[in-house]
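User: quick one, fold this
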Amino acid sequence: MVESKEVQTNRKDEGDSSSFNLLLPVSAAVAVRAASFAYSDYFEERVEFTSTVYSFERVKDGIAMLDDGLDPFETKNMHFLPLTLYVVRYLLKTSPVLLASLWILLDISTAWIAAQTAQKVWDSVHGRDDRNIGKLVFSLYAYNPIAIISTGILSLTVVQNFVFAAIFFFLVSDRPAACALLIGAWSSFTIFPFILISCLAFRSNGSIFKFLSLVSLSIFSAATFFALNFLLNGNSLNFVEPTYTSILKFTSIQPNVGLYWYFFVQIFEHFRSFYTNSFVILYFFMPIPITIMIRRDPVLHFTIIGLLVSIFFPYPTLNQVSFVLAILPLLEEYKKHFRYTLLIGGTIITTIALMPVMWHMWMVSSSGNANFFFGATIVYNVALINLVMDMIFVYSRRQIDLEYSDTLTKKTKMDFAFY
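Assistant:
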């Protein structure tokens, strides 16, 4: 009886300690995000944190047109779906403070979901140990300055990261139907996340029929949201060209941290359709060989596909990779095989620091030109692409270790690594 009471007391103490350990980091994360709103006027103009499809200021422009009785999609510069405009309009009319609180809640929830999912993955692979990987993942996202600033300017990438985290959670929890519904819903807004449907191949139990069923469910979800936007727009399809077509054809050429804008400024107009079609075909084809190759590790596959969504999106921001970079500690078993960790990490940090400098030299002091800023952005994206390539390498490297561990010698491994 005494031992039972002691066990109950110990469990209560552990629960109180866990609550305390959770309260402090969450409170700090909320506080820094609330403080970031004071600097929103400066950061909302930065091309590193906003773009034509994620800018909250552009959403407010569309809402103003709706309030004046005008059709926002007649301008061809409104890249937000009717559902986005009406939902944000309702929130703004209800209470602007509520909108800010909602954005903070979404971003903290993203960190929390990522932490819980990461801990679940870690425990299933490594067993329960003293290492709290969930706390590490939470800190990497919650205290990421880019994520904090994006919340302060009410960037729509905050909503995107939340959906990304939810998809990751449902994928790890083996709930493919919910995962397919979210992928379809998210794809109905920006199209490019649809390649995440390849992740459902890991939850199809080798059944092509089940995989096709999940793809159909995702398409149905996207079609439902498309129909809802159609109804909200007064049974008109004039929102298709400024939203979906502008993403696929990259019609709005403005500086951002992506790969496309400078390229399409330089090429001749009669080559434009060839390159836009080539880029779209390449993007939607890439998941096929990657899924065939990395067929034994859904977490690594999800990380690679998530990076591809961010790298090849026509209108990206720095915050799009925040979630993916936060879950990189889950690749602990591959750590010894990574070749360019320091080089890639240093390049990403350096280029992010250089972007505002190059922008100032180009746009403010006029001591530089577009090549200065594009040089920083292209090196940043090359670093992310090298990270993807290194992930593919370490997967192959580890598979060789597992399958041929009895025959490989230390010299053979080193030769392969240098190769």
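User: anything notable?
Assistant: Residues 2-337 form one domain.
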